[in-house]
Structure formats: C-alpha cells, structure tokens
Here is the input.
Amino acid sequence: MSALNDTPVDTLSFEAARDELVRVVAELEQGAPTLEHSLALWERGEALAARCDEWLLGAKRRLEAARASAADETTGGES
Here is the structure.
C-alpha cells in the first residue's frame, strides 16, 4: 500500500496533512520499490510539510491577534 494520495495538498486540514505526512515518512523509511516512487513520496512529503507549516503559521497569527486584542481591551485601547 502506498502513502501517496491524490487529494490536492492545499485542500487538506492540518490534521489530514500531518497524518499523511507520517505515513509518507514511514513508507520512505521502509524503502520504496523504485526510485521514481521514492521521489514522488519525497515531493508529496515536502508539500505536506509546507501545508502543515502554513496551518501552524496561520494559527500563530490568530493567537497573536487575539492576544493583541485582549491587551487593547485591558488597556482601553490606549497606545
């Protein structure tokens, strides 16, 4: 069974991308049957890792915005 999935990476949730990335890494560690398959796994893994990074960066930005908003409310919006 191959970890390769045809679902476009940019449509995956963080959890789906992370879970598939774990499967891709496991398959790469076991050794793919051909060089071409190994390269396809590697490319998919890179795309999945980038997708996870996008989600994490977005979450970080949301947290920072929420903290800034809470700080503004606490200080009455004064700078």
Q: What stands out?
A: The mean pLDDT is 92. The chain is about 75% helix and 0% strand.
